[in-house]
Structures are given as C-alpha cells and as structure tokens.
Amino acid sequence: MHIYYSDLAAFNSICTVSIFVEMDFDAVAKYSVLHAKPSGLTLQYGTAGFRTKAENLDHVMYRMGLLAVLRSKQTKSTIGVMVTASHNPEEDNGVKLVDPLGEMLAPSWEEYATCLTNAEEQEIQTILSDVCQKEAVSLHQDAFIVIGRDTRPSSKKLSQAVIDGVSVLGGQYHDYGLVTTPQLHYMVCCWNTQEHYEKATVEAYYQKLAKAFVELTKQAFSPGDSHRSLKVDCANGIGALKLQEMECHLPRELLIQMYNNGTKGKLNHLCGADFVKVHQKPPQGIEVKPNERCCSFDGDADRIVYFYNDAAGHFHLLDGDKIATLISTFLKELLSKVGQTLTMAVVQTAYANGSSTRYLEETMKVPVHCVKTGVKHLHQKAQEFDIGVYFEANGHGTVLFSKAAVEKIRHLAKEEKDNQKREAAKMLENTIDLINQTVGDAISDLLVIEAILALKGFTVHHWDAMYTDLPNRQLKIKVADRRVIDTADAERRVVAPPGLQEKIDGLVKKYKLSRAFVRPSGTEDVVRVYAEADTQENADTLAH
Ligand code: 16G
Ligand code: MG
C-alpha cells in the first residue's frame, strides 16, 4: 500500500516545521482563497452528507478535507471521504465522511461539518480551533484519510479539493480513485481493524467476497447445471466498473449481464434503483423478457432492488423489504439447524410495506423494529442484536453480526461434531464473510441474494410469492418551509403543525388496510407523502 503526499504536503513541510504541533493557519487561509465559497450559499450536512450542484461544492470538499484530518486525529484512526451524490442527477455531486468502523459520521461532527461549510473565509480558523478544543483533538497525532469517488464528470476535480484540504493540515492520504461508496466504507474499516479484515485493497475485497460466495453455493451448483442468469442495470455509474471487476472472480455458473454500463447513457437517467423504485417500472436500456430476474443498482452502488415482468407483462418490484425477508428467512432456517439461540431482528423504516412487516412478525416470527429514515438510524438499531438485518424499502441494507455471534458461529463451523449442525454453521460463516457489514452494498447484497436463491432453488417468482405487497404511493410536495413539519414515533406521526395528524387519521379511516404519513425530506427541499391501502386506486387517492 502506497501512501501519497501531494505537493501541498511538501509545501507544508517547507513552510512550517511545526505543522504537527499547531495548525498552519496561513496555509489554510491561502488555500481557502483558492477554494472560495460562493457568496450567500448555505448548505447542510444532511442524511447522506452534502449534496447539491457540483459547481457549488469546491469549497465544501476542501473544508471536508480539513475536517477529516481533525476527525482522524481525534479518533486516532483512518477516516474516509467519499465524493458522490448517489442517485442524484449527473450535474449534482456530494461528499460524506466515513467514521473509523466504516459507519456514518457521528452526529456532533455533522454539525461541525455544516458550520465549517457555511463559514466565511475569515471564520475558518476560529471554527477549526473550536472543534479542536471541544473535541480535545491532539494536533501531535498523525492523520490518515482515504478518499474515493464515483464516476460523475465533476468527481475527480472535487476529490482533488479534498486532497488539498487534507494536505494543508499535514494529513497523509490514500486516494482509491473510482470506487463504490460501500467499497470505501469497507476500506476504512480494514485500515482500522486490520486483525479482523483482509488487506485494505479493492482486490482483497473481491477475493474475500468471491471465496465466500463459492463456498456458500458449493451445494447449489452441480456440474452440467444450466447457468443462472441475472440482468443488472448499473445506473450508468460506478457499479458497472466494479461489478465487471468482481465478475472475473466469480464462478461461471452465475451469468451476469450488465446494462446501462455508462458507455452510452447518462448517470441515473431513466435507470437505476431509485428510478425503478419510485416509478415502479423497468429502467430504460434493458430488455426484460417474461420472468427474467433483473436488478438495479443506484449511482454509487449502495442500493439494489430486483424486478421482473410476469408472463402477462406485469411489472413486479422486489424492494428492500423483500430482500430483508429473503435474507432473514434464510438466516433463521440456518440458525434453527445449528440449534443456537442467537437473537435476530429486522429493522425497517416507516416506508416498509405493511405486508412485509406482517409477514415477518406473524409468519416468520421475527421481531421487527421501526426507526427513522436514514442508514445511520437503521445501522444503530441493528447493532442491538446478535444478528440485525436492516433494509430500507429503497434497497439500502445489510446484515450486522455481533462479535459474540461471529465467534460462536466460527467456533461451531470448526468444532461442532454433528455434521448437519456443522455444515449449517459453515454456511452462516460464509454468509458473514459475503456481507459487507459496514454499510449497504449492492454488489455484496447481489451475491447474498443470488446465493440464497440458488441454494433454495428459488425463481424470482417463488421469492416474490413470499407475500404480496400492499398497493402504495409516494408523492413529494414543495412547500414554503418543510421544517414546520415535525414528526415522532419513527416518523409515523406528525406532532406539528397541530391538527395535521388528526386530518391524516380521518382520511386513513376511510380505506381498508390503509396507512399514511408525511415527513420533511432530509435530502431535498420537499415534504414526502406515503400512503398504502387495499387497492392502488385507494392508495393513490389517499396519498393525493
Ligand atoms: C439518503 C439516505 C437514505 C435515505 C434517504 C432519504 C444514507 C446513506 N442515505 O439517501 O438512507 O433513505 O436519504 O431521503 O443515509 P429523504 O430524507 O429525502 O426522503
Ligand atoms: Mg446510493
């Protein structure tokens, strides 16, 4: 692994011998001018970091480079900076910081990020000093930052601005260049927990996943079997490049055909997981034959949804809820074979289809918890269990295994005398190795899902038939100030403005199997509406 120093780092060592002891504010100021903030612009570190038009982000990137160095010094760990705007249009971009174990940035630091981003140039110094003081950042401590970016035309230049910020504070860095968001999260975790994870290279990531996939599916594929083929819509994004690299390591029994690989279409335009989920139809650029299993990644490959058209030409979506159900059913079956009483739960948000919740609780007898929208909330809740399966309906999710559960499973996979139990434990062990536990990962999730379907001998139709989604509708509405809406109970109830919840309750009562909520978006200046009911017509009317 090489560590790169930019010319700025060299500049620092010449200009300020004392860089590791105190901040070189002259250099910070000099480079702040080169990464000037457009006047009057205010941004907020939201659910998934900063996101806006790429042309307004140069100063944000530079300042996030600065902040990443302080966070790295404070945590005495490697910190990640990912340049991406996920499923947003190509003209947008964004950035988020990744904390030591590959998780989202701590909330108090989100506030510093917002404050630093909106500061005028002459205030930067004070804010940096304040953060150091409040968080007891030791400037003597070394800082190491890993950086990644998606395929947007603006990403390369913006990640250079991050590097400027890192270097001006004397931080060292490694630029992974083009990677998926979950790959960068995984790399951060590798750097900080080297005894548990493989080497912090993208190649090692492929090898680890491929090995686990081959081991897990050993019994599923027999020689002479026909291929299991899967069509993947890569949203014209980074997922195409990285899935292609992954594919070289996979067994030939799994035939992956990639579409929207970025050579023709525009990123996220009429394709990708968000498009498919929101519009409930197949993406452009892919020919969907009846009953063919297809899936869509989003622009930075941290979400995946499956879909197919049935023989009558009807579109079927298998979203994050269906994925959570498939995975948790599989895990529960293995756990009962192993004969272990490990706690397992599924974590969802208010967007989870009512049918999925009912199926999990009533048929599968798996406890379900509902939390606020946003990966960090799901991740946190899932950590409370030996096995926490979390998915947002939009297709972002993963499975977390507690340290104790991993140890127990690995021990059984080696030492258990009963053949059947040992084999089940081995399958659990391979599932642990196949899943990216740092964050939702489209490539890793795809492999987990394909392995389970192959092992169960399931077609996409079998999987879909586990339960039937209630018809639902999502709308977004522009209002003067979305912040007047305040919610409680994991966003399922409105507490302000007064009277609104009563009105919603009154409407919901008019329909069967109905449910509805409104919440202010954390990523766009809109209010979101969700409604479900017994028929599509009723769900639509209720939402409107
Ligand atoms: C972000 C979140 C996603 C959430 C979505 C909600 C992360 C990494 N991503 O994309 O989890 O579902 O925002 O957006 O946290 P909204 O608040 O605009 O509905
Ligand atoms: Mg994404």
Automatic annotation (TrEMBL):
Top EC group: isomerase
What cofactors does the UniProt entry give for this protein?
Mg(2+)
- EC id: 5.4.2.3
Per the record, the pathway is: Nucleotide-sugar biosynthesis; UDP-N-acetyl-alpha-D-glucosamine biosynthesis; N-acetyl-alpha-D-glucosamine 1-phosphate from alpha-D-glucosamine 6-phosphate (route I): step 2/2
Q: Which residues form a coiled coil?
A: 403-430
The UniProt record lists the Phosphoacetylglucosamine mutase AMG1 domain at 200-305, 319-457
Cofactor binding description: Binds 1 Mg(2+) ion per subunit.
Q: Where is the active site?
A: S86
List the CDD domains.
PGM3
The alphabetized list of GO BP terms reads:
carbohydrate metabolic process; hemopoiesis; protein N-linked glycosylation; protein O-linked glycosylation; spermatogenesis; UDP-N-acetylglucosamine biosynthetic process
User: Which PANTHER family would you find in this protein's record?
Assistant: PHOSPHOACETYLGLUCOSAMINE MUTASE
* Job description of the protein: Catalyzes the conversion of GlcNAc-6-P into GlcNAc-1-P during the synthesis of uridine diphosphate/UDP-GlcNAc, a sugar nucleotide critical to multiple glycosylation pathways including protein N- and O-glycosylation.
Q: What is this protein called?
A: Phosphoacetylglucosamine mutase
Which species is this UniProt entry from?
Sphenodon punctatus
Q: Which gene encodes it?
A: PGM3
